Structure formats: C-alpha cells, structure tokens
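Now for a sample.
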Amino acid sequence: MPEQYIQTRFESICGEHDTWIVAYDSAAFGVPLYFVWYTDNKGGDKLLTFNNHEIFAVTALEELAGRVREHLPELQAPPKLQRWLDAVGDLQPETCNTYSVDRIARQIRSKKLSLDALDGLSNFIDLFGDYANSLHDTAHLAAFRENRIIESLIGYYYQHIFWPRLNDQEQFPRYKRPPLEIDHSELLRVFTGMKEKMEAVIRIL
C-alpha cells in the first residue's frame, strides 16, 4: 500500500483560511524571501502588500507571522489574515511553493524548456498575476499581462501539460507533446521585465 501524504497542522490551517506562505528565490536579494499569498473571495488570488502597494517580504521564515502582526496597520490585510495569525500561533511555519526565478531564466536561455521548467515558468506567470490582482491600478503591467508571447506560452502549457496531466495522471508521463515553438530571446526579455517589475516593489523586513 503506498504511503499516504499526511498534512501537517500548519498546512491544514493554511488550507482552512486560504492563506499560505511562498518562497521567492532571486539572486537580486542574495537570500530567499517569504511572501504571504491568499485568496480574496472578491478579488481572486493576491499577495499581501502594504498600503502603498509594496509587497510584504521577510528573509526569516520563522519571523513572518510576528512581522505581519507588527505591521498589520500598514498592510492591505483581508479580515481573515488576523484569523490565520491567531490559528497558526507559534506553529513552525512552512512554505507551499518556491519560485526560483534565476533557474527559470537559465532554462529559458538554454532554449530547452523541460516539463519542470515549464511548470516553474507557468507558476511564476501566475504569481505575477496575483501581484497584479493586489493592485488597484495595473496599467503599468498591461504590457506584460497581455503580451502575445506569454499568451502563447500559457496556451501551450494548458493544452499540452496542465489538462492532459489533470485528466490522466497515469498516462501523462507517456504523453508526447509537440515541441514548443517560441522565440526564446523574446520570452526571456518579457520574463525579465516581469521579474524586475515585481522585485522593484518588494519591501523586506
């Protein structure tokens, strides 16, 4: 009988409150950063931001909850954030996902985007969208969110990876997807621009 995945208490609380911690790893900062990611029933998935729309980030995972409590008046915090903080208490925090952006950039440069690389790139594009969802004005991000090369990549990803894997996990490893026809230099340029836009508004505590 296969070993069953046991959800930790911290993960269970995150699931109950639709509030999670994600790691963001970029050489621009030297160390991994930790963000709070949550689902807003009215506005979709978002990142926790300050009132001036900077992204809340810490370098020490174990200090995240305390830093949120300390800066709560300065944050665009949904009501459930306080309930999440109360529920996690002093539990050992855990991340639910890691965004290794330098690794993604290297894989784009190699022009050999593996399944793992495409998963990472798709996840980053989703994260960028969640950042945009956290803002009132996204006009400065429109060039990235509506970029044809990003739309092409996401279209390929969902048609040949996301849905085939979701519909038949057993057969997916044998699924022969067509090669991704894309301008890797242009993809790298757009990806780098998205990355720089986000990183410019991260406030580290």
Observations:
- The CA atoms of residues 114 and 140 lie 31 Å apart.
